[in-house]
Design a protein that fits this description.
The structure holds 2 protein chains of 2 kinds. By secondary structure, chain A is mainly alpha-helical. Helices cover 69% and strands 0% of the residues of chain A. In chain A, helix 4 crosses helix 9 and helix 9 runs antiparallel to helix 10. Chain A is globular. By secondary structure, chain B is an alpha/beta fold. Chain B folds into 5 domains: 64 residues, no CATH class; 169 residues, Rossmann fold (3-Layer(aba) Sandwich); 171 residues, Dimethylsulfoxide Reductase, domain 2 (3-Layer(aba) Sandwich), CATH 3.40.228; 133 residues, Barwin-like endoglucanases (Beta Barrel), CATH 2.40.40; 262 residues, Alpha-Beta Plaits, CATH 3.30.70. In chain B, helix 9 crosses helix 15. The termini of chain B are far apart. The chains are: A mainly alpha, B alpha/beta. Chains A and B meet through helix 6 and helix 11 of A and helix 25, strand 30, helix 30, helix 31 and strand 34 of B.
Chain lengths: 458, 1032
């Protein structure tokens, strides 16, 4: 097939009028939820409840209900934490970095990706707290003046985590809300329901679409984007320090920060694609979230997949090159030890399957990409499993080697976090515009003043 | 203004109807009330001072006070505050008790026949720790793991709390008076039938007299003293060879060469403490004196792990082996044996059993070159012929010089022979036994199975059991009488010439129990109501006054001597002996001239390292103590070699059925590296059906196979049939099984420098062979400037030459530091709480492994990797070099444990006290067991070895009070106290005067994982193997 790469593909397909766009995006908010919505909500809600019950039992009995043990002090909760923080990376990357890079195609997916970021960070934020032996004392990790005369240890990466994740969450939330303000105003203006109107009025902060508002808004948005951009890199860098700062072979590695950031973007994009595939279909948004969007994201996925693959290879190379026997053993053990199945799951899901995206057909085939992105998410979860478990289970002294076997509580709480995530996503689709109305209008054809009056330059 | 107008109004008020403006008729008519009204600026009541009496009783203050109080009540009433009673200080302080200060009392352990002297630490009147009594001439301040752990027995919640009698197959409480009255009645009415008093070994002279008094009073009574594991075979052989006496004590410290034949003399048996001490004297890196240990055994034992040369041999072939050695030595003209020793040839034997000819040659050479300085020692459980042959071998080589002529073992009441027990069984069968008294013994479990004792009990009219915890023998009886723990008891002991030892109670009885001697005494008195708590105390004193005191020829008055003796725990007596040993060489003539016919499997039943003969089954600490070799906890198993396992298609955890004539046992298999082919070793003490909450349904009862009529000895069987049976049973190992097959993992500890070893020859020729100059000179750089430890700084050294890996230190640590029992399921998932563990590494092949052991505890690193990763500063460093753990701060991130390269940190995944056996350890009486100086850790908290910081703190406080400088030698750790070979040294690394300094800076010293530059403070002294110099 001959593709013309000299012209930019239109961001939205079908020549939708501005009113049509508004109508399309706002439709789910105006209509009553249908049966499918409730079925979906029931499923995700059940998962959430299942996880919550198991978590409650864990609080009552102690974390001994999990598979964690003596060599493997960290298990599922930390794996899940890193996984969800990683998922949370796509949103800010799409909304902030792509915004600064003036990638107009981001407008169709930015809102959704940002929402997912926030939900994913909420899921992630639960785990460092519940993984504690005494979760009720989690406040000890926060440096505040207190009568106990206690202070935190600023050399511990876990304290850095507290700051990194909370900052990231706060900034993402503000950024997301800032973007929502014009849309709230639009919704306020078009709704007939009094209750909705008052809610939208409160959240739109008196927005009147005035020129001055837009000016301030754009300035604030750029500044926030600039502020959020370094956070995209810093959060996962700091999460990777949890491992890299330790002296454990398999963790103590300088490649971890870039490797983790690449992996986070990789998994985040995969998750965004997974959810968008359903959203664009269910809410009939194919013309706004086009195949081109999905393809572009698939390209990012293959790029980050290569980075991740490079990191895997480099870890092995450095292990050999370092000449440290413990380090070498850990990597051979990863590939051929008792957790080899996890390692090869990770490699095949993260490095091998995404290579199919080299084919344009696969990049643009919805079922194929759905399969691949789900595999990517599985692979990225296993990547964290491999890092946490295989490094810990056979470290320096062979006498203390052990195995980690997850229990129903580990698995249930992981499922519960998925339940929480999807419950929030489902509620989000019915309560807020999943696409930024104002931004998408700005990139609609003819929306911007141009020399030829909005006629496509052929 | 109003005033002026008022004046005007008032002025013309009289008669002038002044057309002044008026607003109302009242004004017009100058109504007085109106005038009063307008003269006032404010409304009624507003300008007067208020009338307090009319105001509501709720003042603002009161309202706020009530609000605050009700909020406080609401807040506190809903909490789980419970009135935990009052703590009342002493009104008048007892002279001997200072709150917060420990008192120590000398006493005598009664865990086995050895009667070690113990020193019991009590706090506020309750015993919290048992250590060895340093004044005891034999045990010299050390006791074994069982002695350490026996304190748990005192506080065992399963202890019987009052006497019980059987009422229609249901035990009901009964008063002591009634029980005594009924039993005395039965004793008197037994008629022509026998009263069988079944007891363990009696080592107390006073108790012995008491038993004889009992027999005098009730002539129908007969004593049967039985220990399942005893030296009867060894002593029978000795009698045959030397005519009189018992097998003597051995001067292990003078032996250059020790040849152990299936004898675990370093790991088991009553004399273990002395054996290990004397043996380890000759593994000294300061004096550079090293003995050489040959071990010829079937299963890999603790002694075998410490061997310089180890040969595998099935136990039933030991006789042929010893005879072959005799023949070989004769052939080499090394010995002059009068008699032809049959057709044994060492060469053929080595071929038949695949023994290394090179090693056998070394053995022959060493035996010939070290005449009088070598000892061959056969195991207790080997058949009598082996012992006779070994006695002959030692005699002909002149090794009888190593028999100690100055010390004599004393048997107060010799154990009953198996024939006597057989007689008892026959009498029971014939219904001639009217009453059986289980005098703190458990024959149903321990008696050889062929006596059929449990069934025979049905023929007995009255069964009385004196016991602390219900057991298999008590449950079918008529009366169960609860007895004191030895910490609540009086007593004495005599096991050797030269001294007596004394036992005194250190706590009042916790329950309505009586000392077992006092019960007998009351029966002798025949009057139930005459009982006094002091009855045996008086009896004992009386005995000492009349029987012991005169013999001591003391210048002191009896009272003074008695109190002195109680204080010291021992009384020395001048009773020198000089034993002489004349060998009767004619015994050789009776020895069979050919090897016994060997077929099928050899089965060897051994005492458990942890539970002994099962008496410690209800002790969780011991159940959880990993087996020193296999590291199995909470179970016993059949140990088989890898070749045999392959032959039978077995893997670890498979079940086998072992059949010896009519007796059979189904038990899981453990493939044990270094085990001899076609032989099976099983430890007893498990499979108890009635032992208490902890001990029941743990493991398998190997006594089902112990049959004195089918074996070569009561513990050794040949021609057993072994079959795999379907099913699986999970054995739980505290340390994962070491895989020999992958080259990646082979010898990993040595490759990583965790274990560093050499040979004696190498060391003697080049003492600095371990030090590599280039490594030594290079000080690795650090990001932070190191803290200067100029003053006292704590350190430890562990001499791996002396460490035999028995695990006594592990138990001492458990007791000292309030470490909970977690149970088999938790050990299975790697959550045992041991702060100190013994790492066991195999190297070499599955068939012939070399074993390296290493006690592993917190290394108190100067640059501890755990410290910088803790987010809440719960683990920090002290200026005296300790890595501290602050439990209250710990939130349980477990990051420290992940970052600890030694994995010595332990996490409370549950409240293990609550989690294990349904809160067994949360029983109120268990709280008394805890060391008050050590925090009892809650759920979700990390913990680890502290170098016994509570002892350091105490020594520091003492030093401050006495105005002295604290010295390193002022403090000992619990593990150091417990180590019978003195392998552990502790002290100040900066004090050049201390003994510790020599070890800390020894040329064989190394640090584990030194290359990480975390600067650990535990020095390991590399193990030297005393192999021949031509073997590099």
């Amino acid at each position: 097939m001959k593709v013309d790469y000299t012209t930019e593909a239109p961001v939205i397909q079908e020549r939708l009028s501005l009113a049509q766009i508004q109508e399309l995006v706002a439709k789910p908010l105006d209509t009553k939820p249908d049966k499918k919505f409730f079925i979906a909500l029931t499923i995700s809600g059940s998962l959430l409840l299942f996880g919550a019950v198991l978590l409650a039992i864990t609080f009552y009995k102690g974390i001994g209900l999990w598979g964690n043990n003596e060599p493997v002090g960290w298990g599922f909760p930390i794996i899940n934490f890193v996984f969800w923080v990683g998922i949370g990376h796509a949103g800010t990357l799409i909304s902030a970095i792509l915004f600064l890079l003036r990638q107009k195609w981001r407008t169709g997916i930015a809102r959704f990706a940002e929402a997912m970021t926030i939900f994913a960070v909420m899921c992630a934020g639960i785990f460092p707290i519940i993984h504690l032996g005494r979760p009720w004392l989690a406040g000890y990790l926060v440096p505040y003046p207190n009568q106990h005369g206690m202070w935190v240890n600023f050399t511990s990466p876990l304290v850095w985590d507290v700051f990194a994740v909370s900052t990231y969450f706060t900034v993402s939330l503000i950024f997301w809300y800032t973007g929502l303000i014009p849309d709230f105003a639009t919704l306020r203006d078009r709704t007939a329901s009094k209750i909705k109107k008052s809610i939208y009025s409160i959240f739109s902060l008196g927005w009147r679409h005035s020129n001055r508002h837009w000016q301030h808004y754009e300035k604030a948005y750029v500044l926030l984007a600039g502020f959020a951009t370094p956070l995209v890199l810093s959060v996962h860098t700091i999460v990777s320090f949890d491992f890299a700062v330790a002296i454990l072979p398999g963790w103590h590695s300088t490649i971890f920060p870039p490797y983790f950031v690449a992996g986070a973007i990789f998994s985040g994009f995969a998750m965004v694609v997974t959810v968008l595939i359903f959203v664009r279909k269910i809410f009939d948004l194919q013309s706004i979230i086009t195949l081109n969007h999905l393809e572009k994201m698939n390209k990012v996925i293959i790029a980050t997949s290569l980075m991740v693959g490079y990191s895997y290879a480099m870890e092995f190379f450095i292990a050999w090159y370092s000449g440290v026997p413990e380090e070498q053993f850990v990597f051979i053990n990863r590939a051929f030890g008792p957790y080899a199945w996890a390692y090869w799951t990770m490699v095949s899901c993260n490095v091998l399957f995404p290579q199919l995206f080299w084919f344009r057909k696969i990049r643009r085939s919805v079922p194929a990409m759905l399969a691949i992105v789900i595999l990517v998410n599985v692979g990225m979860w296993f990547e964290r499993f491999v890092i946490v478990v295989t490094s810990l289970h056979r470290d320096f002294l062979p006498s203390s080697w052990g195995m980690f076997i997850p229990t129903i509580y580990d698995i249930g709480i992981l499922l519960g976090s998925f339940g929480l995530f999807f419950t929030l996503v489902i509620l989000f689709t019915k309560s807020l515009p999943v696409i930024s109305i104002s931004e998408i209008k700005a990139v609609a054809e003819g929306a911007q003043p141009s020399y030829h009056g909005g006629v496509n330059h052929e | 203004m109003p005033d002026i107008r008022d004046d005007e109004i008032t002025k013309g008020a009289a008669n002038n109807p002044d057309p002044n403006y008026w607003r109302s008729f009242e004004e017009l008519h100058r109504d007085q009330s109106f005038i009063n009204e307008i003269n006032k600026e404010f409304k009624e009541g507003a300008s007067e001072s208020p009338d307090i009496s009319g105001i509501s009783a709720f003042s603002r203050r009161k309202f706020l006070a009530l609000l605050g109080a009700s909020a406080a009540f609401a807040g506190t009433a809903c909490t789980n505050y419970r009135d935990k009673g009052e703590i009342i200080p002493y009104n008048k302080k007892p002279a001997e008790i200072t709150i917060g200060k420990a008192n120590y009392y000398a006493s005598t352990c009664n865990g086995c026949s050895f009667a070690c002297g113990v020193l019991i630490k009590t706090r506020e009147g309750r015993p919290v720790k048992i250590d060895g009594n340093p004044d005891h001439p034999v045990s010299q301040g050390k006791i074994c793991a069982q002695g350490q752990a026996s304190i748990m027995g005192l506080y065992d919640p399963d202890r019987l709390k009052s006497p019980k009698s059987n009422n229609n197959n249901r035990f009901v409480d009964i008063s002591w008076h009634d029980a005594d009255a009924e039993i005395i009645n039965e004793l008197n009415n037994v008629g022509s039938k026998e009263i069988a008093l079944i007891t363990g070994n009696i080592v107390s002279p006073a108790e012995n007299k008491l038993i004889h008094d009992f027999i005098n009073k009730y002539p129908a009574a007969k004593v049967y003293s039985f220990e399942q594991f005893n030296e009867s075979v060894r002593n029978n052989a000795w009698k045959k060879c030397y005519g009189t006496g018992e097998f003597p004590l051995i001067k292990w410290n003078q032996a250059e060469v020790v040849v152990s034949l299936d004898s675990d003399f370093l790991g088991m048996g009553a004399n273990k403490i002395e054996n290990t001490r004397l043996f380890a004297e000759r593994r000294d890196v300061i004096n550079k004196k090293f003995n050489r240990l040959y071990v010829v055994e079937s299963n890999l034992s603790l002694t075998g792990m410490n061997a310089d040369y180890r040969l595998k041999l099935r136990p039933d072939a030991q006789y042929a082996f010893v005879m072959a050695i005799l023949n070989e030595l004769r052939k080499r003209n090394a010995i002059d044996v009068s008699r032809d020793t049959g057709n044994f040839s060492l060469e053929n034997f080595a071929g038949e059993y695949n023994l290394s000819k090179k090693d056998l040659n070394y053995l022959m050479d060493d035996l010939m070159n070290n005449r009088g300085r070598a000892i061959v020692y056969a195991g207790d459980q080997l058949p009598v012929n082996v012992h006779i042959a070994v006695n002959a071998l030692n005699e002909y080589l002149g090794n009888s010089k190593l028999y100690n002529p100055d010390a004599e073992k004393i048997n107060i009441l010799p154990l009953s022979t198996y024939d006597e027990l057989k007689n008892l069984a026959e009498k029971m069968k014939a219904g001639q036994v009217g009453m059986v008294i289980h005098y703190d013994a458990n024959p149903v479990y321990n008696f050889p199975v062929n006596f059929n004792y449990e069934e025979l009990l049905n023929n007995v009219d009255i069964i009385v059991s004196l016991t602390q915890v219900e057991n298999e023998s008590s449950i079918n009886g008529n009366y169960i009488l609860p007895v004191h723990h030895y910490l609540e008891s009086w007593g004495d002991a005599k096991t050797r010439n030269g001294f007596y030892s004394l036992r005194q109670p250190v706590i009042s009885p916790l329950y309505d129990t009586r000392q077992k001697e006092a019960i007998l005494l009351n029966w002798i008195n025949g009057e139930p109501s005459s009982f006094k708590e002091t009855v045996y105390h008086e009896y004992l004193m009386d005995y000492w006054k009349t029987e012991v005191y005169p013999g001591l020829n003391s210048k002191l008055s009896f009272k003074t001597l008695w109190y002195g003796a109680l204080h010291d725990g021992v009384v020395l007596k001048n009773e020198k002996v000089s034993l002489s040993f004349t060998f009767n060489s004619s015994v050789l003539a009776d020895l069979p001239s050919s090897a016994i016919n060997i077929s099928g499997f050899a089965v060897h039943i051994k005492e458990s390292y942890a539970l002994k003969d099962g008496r410690y089954a209800n002790n969780g600490w011991l159940q959880e103590l990993p087996h020193p070799v296999s590291k199995v906890t909470w179970d016993n198993y059949a140990a088989v070699s890898s070749t045999t396992a392959k032959k039978l298609g077995l893997e670890t955890n498979d079940l086998v059925e072992i059949k010896i004539s009519d007796n059979s046992l189904t038990i899981p298999v453990l493939v044990q590296p270094g085990a001899a082919d076609n032989s099976i070793t099983i430890e007893t003490g498990y499979g108890r059906t009635k032992a208490g909450t902890v001990g029941e349904r743990v493991g398998f009862n190997a006594n089902k196979l112990s049959n004195i009529s089918t074996g070569l000895s009561p513990w050794l069987f040949t021609s057993a049939e072994v079959n795999k049976v379907p099913g699986n049973y999970k054995l739980v190992l505290a340390q994962t099984f070491y895989d020999f097959t992958q080259s990646l993992k082979q010898d990993l500890p040595k490759k990583r420098g965790i274990i560093k070893e050499g040979t004696v020859a190498e060391y003697l020729s080049n003492p600095g062979f371990m030090i590599h100059e280039e490594e030594k000179s290079k000080e690795l750089p650090s990001v932070n400037p190191p803290f200067p430890y100029n003053k006292l700084k704590w350190g430890m050294s562990i001499d791996l030459n002396k460490c035999l890996s028995c695990g006594d230190c592990v138990v001492a640590c458990l007791v000292e530091n309030n470490i909970p029992v977690v149970g088999k399921d938790q050990v299975n998932v790697g959550r045992e709480m041991h702060w100190l563990r013994i790492d066991r590494y195999y190297s070499g092949t599955m068939e012939d492994p070399a074993v390296s052991n290493q006690p592993m505890l917190c290394q108190q690193c100067d640059q501890a990797p755990c410290e910088n990763v803790c987010p809440v500063l719960a683990t920090t460093h002290s200026p005296d070099g300790l890595n501290q753990m602050i439990y209250n701060r710990c939130v349980g991130t477990r990051y420290c444990s992940n970052n600890c390269p030694y994995k010595v940190r332990r996490f409370n995944f549950f409240n293990f006290r609550d989690d294990f056996r349904d809160g067994y350890q949360e029983s109120p009486v268990f709280a008394l067991l805890q060391n008050p100086e050590v925090t009892v850790r809650s759920r979700g908290v990390m913990e680890k070895c502290t170098f016994c910081i509570q002892r350091i703190a105490e020594a520091k406080a003492d030093a401050v009070r006495e105005g002295k400088e604290l010295k390193g030698s002022d403090v000992t750790t619990a593990c150091k106290d417990a180590c019978s070979t003195n392998a552990i040294k502790f002290g100040d690394i900066n004090n050049k005067e201390e003994e510790f300094y020599k070890y800390r800076n020894h040329e064989l010293g190394y640090y584990v994982l030194e290359e990480l530059n975390i600067k650990p403070n535990v020095t390991y002294i590399a193990k030297l193997r005393n192999t021949h110099s031509e073997e590099a």
